[in-house]
């Protein structure tokens, strides 16, 4: 029967039985201040995507409250019918201006933005080439495009050379190349400059998901601007659930492409418009990021300090940029045990299983809210637990 696979699923129960289940911790209160109460205990939050710590900022909260009082709780319908607000259009105009595009279109989630744009733009006789470690929303958008007749291929992670081989094999077919700018789990930036060169050489259209670079790199505009490629990637998507401290997402493109998506993209047409409070919070966050565009975010400096300290302690830290610090473990059991031990000592980090990337990692994340004093306390805990967290290598006989 269809549900037999559900009733036989035991991986989560097995982890719970060992006391190592890492998911769905119950949060009591906001996590944007660096500290959060999880399952009744106060811990240092080193797993939040609220990189700029704006979700608890009084100005952002106030903007959301004002919108809630004026507009109510909901946009009340899809935007092309009853749910189009002036708040939506004002945010779109400012997004386009900040990132240097003609137009923007917002969606109810970042996932829907990627799902909708990829599946709407690529169809029969087209090719979609996806980085093999791209976010699930990009992969699922490609799968939907495949259902519409597109040919879907995966190129080696961050390999412009492998991408070029694939594009050379189908030069006559319109191609969409899809990558993240800053990869969510590894904290590594895609080689955007080289990918742009390959796409231009073969006439392919490039989409870069800047969700985890916005607000942090390239004066707040992401990896494309950091790489000096502003204006050379025709499609950018982003999530509001990271530095923009809200819910929702957007695509940035030329005006004709945005108008096409506005009238043909199913996740846009058949979803309610983003709520007034979420729209206002994202817009207020964008204004704050723009105001501070000339300074390096505290999250980046905090991560550099913590990354260096963990490396000095002997942890297996992958190279990364921005606020994300991946700490590798040789197996799932070791990673889950480390996650639980740290949590028991007041530190929460994200558990990343091999299916989501290369190897088992703890995804340690800094935000603007992490003070030097808080980081020193974190480093002290890692130093104290070093012998239990770092696998001991067997000495040769």
Q: What topology does this entry show?
A:
Blueprint: H1 4-7, H2 11-17, E1 27-28, E2 35-38, E3 41-46, H3 58-71, H4 86-99, E4 103-107, H5 110-121, E5 127-131, H6 136-147, E6 151-155, H7 160-169, E7 175-180, H8 192-202, E8 205-209, H9 223-226, E9 235-239, E10 249-253, H10 255-264, H11 266-269, H12 276-291, H13 298-312, E11 324-329, H14 332-344, E12 347-352, E13 360-365, H15 372-384, H16 386-389
Parallel strand pairs: 3-12, 5-6, 5-7, 7-8, 8-9
Antiparallel strand pairs: 1-2, 2-3, 4-10, 9-10, 11-13, 12-13
Helix pairs in contact: 3-12, 4-12, 5-6, 7-8, 13-15
User: What integer is the average pLDDT?
Assistant: 94
Distance between the termini: 54 Å
Strand arrangement in the largest pleated sheet: 4-10-9-8-7-5-6
Strand-residue fraction? 15-25%
The radius of gyration computed from the alpha-carbon positions, rounded to a whole number of angstroms, is 22 Å
Largest sheet: 7 strands, mixed
* Secondary structure: helix percent: 40-55%
CA-based shape: globular
Q: How many H/I helices?
A: 16
Number of DSSP E strands: 13
Question: What are the low-pLDDT stretches, counting only 5+ consecutive residues below 50?
Answer: 393-397
What is the SS-derived class? alpha/beta
Order of helices and strands: HHEEEHHEHEHEHEHEHEEHHHHEHEEHH
